[in-house]
Amino acid sequence: MPGVCCQRGSIGLVTTVVFASLCLTGSDVVQITSQNIDSFLANTELAFINFYADWCRFSQILTPIFEESERKVKEAFPEEGKVVFGKVNCDTEAALASVYRVGKYPTLKIIRYGISGKKEYRGQRSVEAIVRFVKDQLANPVSVITNLDDLDNLDWQKAHLIGYYDSIQSNDYKTFLRVASVLRHDCQFHAATGSFTAKERIAGNKVVFRPSVEPENEMTYSGSTGDFSLLLRWSTDKCVPLVRELTFENAEEFAEEGLPFLLLFHQPDDAVIPQKFKNRIAVELLPERNSINFLTADGSKFTHPLQHLGKTTSDLPVIVIDSFKHMYIWPHDPKTGLETPGLLKQFVADLNSGKLHQDFHAEPNWIKLPETKPEKKEETVSIETVKLDVKDTVATDHIPKDDEKQLGGERTAQVPQSTSPPDSLFRKLAPARTRYTLLRDEL
Fold it and tell me: Is 238 helix (H, G, I), strand (E, B) or coil?
């Protein structure tokens, strides 16, 4: 539809001519709705989804590029169930946009066998870059072992999952390959097949996990090697710690995932509360692991976020949720509250339902933040200090219409009110909302 996706915009006539040529190509991008999404994703190795809004000019610009990328990828991978491109209209499918936590348009996400990746695609919005990215994501994540001695030469700074199979044609190996596709960024995957693995397969095909640093502490999977859901659950538990440690070095990486933080600030010599925190999450919040990051942090190092919340190290331990819009303090003492079933789970449920935001705006008893004049020039984020300004200027491009209406359709400075929780600090470490352009790299 050249009239829709090739109209002249602020990017100029020359670029529009390029888009016009793209619009003439056919594509099989699937329109995804709440009615067909399950069948669409059920048996697809990789789905690349464009969450868009018709009124967003950047969504309009991306449409022909996305369609041309789909055509080129399908030429390279024509087999059924290998890769599909889909699109979700977030105005008509608001529920799906909410499920996948989409708040800006266009947003591009990878979904493998129905499981959404935590990171968005943030590469260049060009046919060449998108095609290259998808092809990289479809590369075989499993290295084939031809000699068992090769397993002694692995990089033990990384975690490894090793499968022993009679043949790569077996259904068990294909299940292992599917798991490796989902967890390719979290573990190194290796498969040893053939007669030389017979001693390792006395009881049948086998999968083992070798942790980093201490490979001698090998753990063997005891379930069915052909059960994808069971093997994925076990492998995820081993490759991806449910609760991770937040540091200055990995803060940007976590922020880039775009998921809210459930974060425990603790004393550096306190091992009891962090363990209680981990136990409570394991018991009650495991289903939320793909929608929120569970983190612990040394409160003596992250003093600025504590000050932002009106806390000091003497108040530790402190549990907060950073929604990437606001920071909310858990209203219970972690020393006793973590002993009570349901309290932490309810805190997360209140975030998902919007109750936390509503309650804090309704109650006039929140911390009164000091009023400061916003800086005229943009500050550089320092990972070492995480000294991030409370103020933030919000661009209304690519954000939902409701938010645009609240801002009066203009770019305004958001000034915290006395009835509001403090603004998020960690969102400043994520890629900016305004980095949606076809003229330069996303990052």
Answer: helix
Query: DSSP letters of 152-171?
Result: GGS-TTS-EEEEEES-TTSH
Coil, strand or helix at 413: strand
Checking phi first, is residue 293 left (phi over 0); if not, alpha (psi -120 to 50) or beta?
A: beta
The structure tokens listed for 85 are: 């491109």
Check pLDDT > 50 for residue 377: no
Q: Which helix (H) or strand (E) segment is 231 a member of? A: helix 228-239
CA of 276: how far to CAs of 236, 243, 246, 337, in Å? 21, 11, 17, 10
Helix 171-182 / helix 228-239 crossing angle, nearest 10 deg: 40
Q: Is the peptide bond before 274 cis (omega within 30 degrees of 0)?
A: no
Residue matched to tokens 């975690």: 159
pLDDT in tens, 84-126: 999 999 999 999 998 887 878 999 999 999 888 767 888 899 9
Min mean pLDDT across 222-226, 344-348, 386-390 is at 386-390
Across the strands, what pairs with 89?
52
8 Å CB contact between 320 and 309: yes
239 exposure class (CB count in 10 Å sphere: 0-12, 13-18, 19+): buried
The one-letter code for the residue type at 45 is E
Beta strands in 248-338 (DSSP E): 261-266, 293-298, 318-322, 327-329
Q: Give the pairing of strands 293-298 and 206-210.
A: unpaired
What would the pLDDT profile of 265-310 be if each residue is shown by its tens digit? Answer: 999 999 999 999 999 999 999 889 888 999 999 999 999 999 999 9
0.70 cut: is pTM over it?
A: no
Pick from 113, 53, 45: nearest CA to 83: 45
Largest CA distance in the chain: 72
Strand ranges of the sheet holding 46-52, from the earlier edge strand across to the other edge: 30-31, 83-89, 46-52, 107-112, 115-120
* Residue 249's pLDDT band (cuts 50, 70, 90): confident
pLDDT tens, residue by residue, 127-156: 999 999 999 999 999 999 988 888 888 888
Amino acid at 326: H
The per-residue DSSP string of 317-369 comes to SEEEEE-SSBEEE-SS-HHHHTTSTTHHHHHHHHHHHTHHHHHHHH-S-S--P
3-state SS assignment for residue 305: helix
- CA 177 – CA 182 distance, rounded (Å): 9
Q: Which two tokens stand for residue 333?
A: 């003492």
Q: Is 333 exposed, middle or buried (0-12, 13-18, 19+ CB in 10 A)?
A: exposed
